[in-house]
Design goal:
By secondary structure, the chain is an alpha+beta fold. It has 3 helices and 8 strands. A hairpin with a 2-residue loop joins strand 5 and strand 6.
């Protein structure tokens, strides 16, 4: 096989991990978050089960299981069974808000003290 300057071998498992965005890294570590596009105000989180598997929780209820491959630098993608049909969901990192960010935003908007 001739060598081309555009040829690059596929990244190894360790190389893929270095491309993860800090927001997605926090999601993968299990921090609770909300989505700005969610009309219901649900809380979401992932919990690491082993080296590549993660469980996905919605309001602390088990919703599904995914692998490390679902997390991308721009967000994550899930396929969940809803009413017996596979449904695809994709979330961009710009839509993710962690609870410490939400507390600061609500404090500024409401203008009151948090109890």
């Amino acid at each position: 096989m001739s060598y081309s300057k555009n040829y690059r071998p596929a990244p190894t498992k360790n190389e893929r991990r270095t491309n993860i965005n800090p927001v997605i890294d926090r999601v993968m570590r299990g921090e609770r978050f909300r989505l700005t596009t969610d009309r219901f105000g649900l809380t979401y989180r992932f919990e690491r089960e082993d080296s590549i598997h993660y469980t996905f929780y919605i309001n602390d209820l088990l919703a599904g299981v995914t692998t490390q491959g679902a997390f991308l630098p721009i967000g994550f993608a899930l396929t969940l069974g809803v009413l017996g049909q596979p449904t695809h969901f994709s979330v961009l990192r710009d839509d993710i808000r962690f609870f410490d960010e939400l507390t600061a935003i609500n404090f500024i908007q409401e203008g009151g003290a948090l109890c």
